[in-house]
Each structure stands twice: as structure tokens, then as C-alpha cells.
Amino acid sequence: FLDIRKLQPSTGICTYDPGYTSTGSCSSTITYIDGKEGVLLYRGYNIEDLAEQGDFLDSAYLLLMNELPTAEQKATFEQEITMHTLVHEQLIHFYKGFKHDAHPMAIMTGVVGALSAFEPYAADIADPASRMRSCLRMISRMPTLAAIAYRTSRGYPIIYPRNDLDYASRFLHMMFAWPTQKYDVDPVLARALEKILILHMDHEQNASTSTVRTAGSSQANPFACIASGIAALWGPAHGGANEAVLRMLEDIGSKDRIPEALARAKDKKDPFRLMGFGHRVYKTFDPRAKVMRKVCHEVLEHLQIKDDALLDIAMELENVATHDPYFVQRGLYPNVDFYSGIVLRALGVPLDMFTVLFAVSRTCGWVAQWKEMAEEQQRTPKISRPRQMYTGYMLRPYVPLGDRY
Ligand code: ACO
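C-alpha cells predicted for Citrate synthase (405 residues):
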């Protein structure tokens, strides 16, 4: 057979790096990770400080604008974020088109993609003001879209956003309030959610963020790019891990079954992995997991949940696995998702909404990364286009239907 490689001009040397473990796809000033030391910085600020001392607006502004806001900038930013929490009424009809048992992440992929049709200015990605508007509107509208996804999937009436509340409280209110009853958001739970949102905002070039950048490199509509990020986040190896952790802890069921789970995780013939353990970049404790573990204890204490079976299993599992040579040698330690599921469950968030919450938070990182990519594209346009190592057939003659067997 003819070797087609001999016919085409050489395209030069390229690297073969499945999973891009050693490939930098862009330069960025947003997030720094030191996987060996377990350090995560947003624009140079430590994630633990941002989560413990700052609020949602501080981190969202920081990711987008490169600096922490002054009091005046923060007030303007808050107003911009709060002013656009409502979505077009027509969009609400989209939710009714989904099957009653559709996963909320499927719904979110659809409705966020559909936003492209409702935000006409967004197509003008060459205009910096339009780009910023897309970023702000995306952050504003995400909690509303997420809460509607939850409520329509349950047949509950939609609760409109209360703009007198802060971002996290507004989200909890839209999720759990009932039109005929008074509902006060618990400030301790709202603060816990705020910390979860801050911790998940950005994590440099993970699968979903790379997807957003790749989609954006073709100059696609920014809302469509965010929808592609939501789709990538859904998988259990990425954002779906918090849901998978809880299902795993429930399956383990009791502390005495932990050795069995560990043995399965080590068995290469068994596809089972310890969910919430391991990370492509962190080969030590994920710094977000440390904050999350603290939040977990605070929330359970506040709610006076003394004996939480899943927390007991989680703590024991962490203790055993982090002393087990298999996990230590491979640098497999708890990641952010290990404890976040237990906190979300305590907040009353249903399992199928865990990854949606992650998407609400990660939207801040996605838009910051998309904006940085779009600015770079204005200077030097370059569509993302990886090469491949072709291992299939070379040119072969077409076989007519009657001659195939
Ligand atoms: N349980 C058991 N073994 C594991 C686990 C785990 N959770 N994670 C990795 N390993 C093992 C692999 O089997 C492999 O072993 P080997 O060298 O003997 O073949 C070794 O550790 C390296 O694993 P890779 O798959 O090459 O690591 P990679 O960096 O590609 O994967 C990932 C990272 C996907 C996060 C992986 O650790 C995993 O599947 N973890 C569980 C899912 C999870 O918690 N995902 C959330 C990530 S954080 C986030 O998205 C916010």
C-alpha cells in the first residue's frame, strides 16, 4: 500500500503527550500551583487566606481584574454582579423541554449554551467592553440558572433572586426558599458555601478550563464556551468527583469495609479508584482539601450533627490511605472533592447538584481564563489545534459493497 506519510510534506517535529501531562498550552497570570509543596495562589494570593479572610466578591474580582478590589471598586463590582441576576423569561421554557429525570449538569450544559442566543452583544469578542460584560453577566446569572435547574427537575416553583442578599446567600435562598413560607438563610451555612465557591473558582489548565480556552480559540461565543466547560466538568474524573466521593462512602458503608475498598483501589484489574484521592498536579495534600476539612467540621458542629457516619468513614479512610505505601508512593492524597460532598450534603444540596455547584464557582475562573485567552487572541490569533500520532491504516483501495466480507 501507498504510504501517505511519504506524500505529504513534513510538518516538522511534534511532541506526543497524551493527557498533556507535560505540555503547557498557554501562558497565564491567573493561577499558580506548586503541586509538590501543595500551594495554590490566585494572582499571587494564597487560597487559604482568600477563603478564610476574603469573600466571594474579593476572589471573583481578583481573578478577573488581577488585583483585590478597593472598597469603591468592590461596591461597583457588587452592583454589576447583582444587577443581572435575572435571566430572560423565555429561557425558563427551555427547562420544561428536558425529561423529568435529566441530570442537572445536562440541563446546565443546554441552558448555558442557549444563553448565547439571549446575549447579543457577546458575539463582539473584539470589543473589551463586550468581553467584560459577558464575564460579569455569566457570573451573575449562573446561580439563578443552577437553582432553576434544581427546582424544575423537582417540579418546585421557581424562586426569583433576592438581590438584597450576598452571592452565596442568594443562591441558597433560590435553592431552598418556598413561596408560601418565610425562609431565612443561615449565615453560617452561607459562609461555608462562600468558602466552597472561593476554593473551586480556578485551578489553571484543568480539563474544563482547557476546554473553555480551546473552544474560545475558535472565537466562539463566550456563553457557548462556558457550556463546553460545564460538559467537561461533569465527568467523575473531574468535577463529578464530589458526587462520586459521596456515592463511594455510602457504598463502603462502614469503617470495617475500608480495607476492602483499599484493596480494590490497588487492584489494577479492578476499575475502582478511591474517589477524592489523587490529582494530576498535587502530589501531596491539596491545599483546598485542608480548608474544606475545616469547613466540614464547622458545618457539622453548627448543625449539631454529632455522629455523621459518612464523615467517620471519610476520616478513617483518609487516615489509613495517607499511611498506605501504595498511595504515599504515588503521591495520592485527598483532593478538594474528598470533603466537599459531605459539606454540601449537610447544607441540604442534593447529590445531583454537587457538580452544578462546582460549575457555579468555576464560572469565575472560566470567564477570567476566557478573557485572558481572548485578549491574547486579539494580539496574536492562534486556534488551538493539537496534532496526533496516527496509528490507523495507510491508504488502501476502496472496496465495493459486493466485494466486502
Ligand atoms: N485510586 C487508586 N489509584 C489511583 C488513584 C485513585 N484515586 N488515582 C491514581 N491512582 C494510581 C493509578 O492507578 C496509577 O497507578 P500506577 O502508576 O500503578 O499505574 C497512578 O496512581 C497514577 O495515576 P494516573 O491515572 O496516571 O494519574 P493522573 O494524574 O492521570 O490522574 C486523577 C489524576 C484523574 C485525578 C486520578 O488521581 C483519579 O482518577 N482520582 C480519582 C477521581 C478524583 O478524585 N478526581 C478529582 C480530581 S480534582 C478535581 O477535578 C477538582
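Residues 255 and 313 are 5 Å apart (CA to CA).
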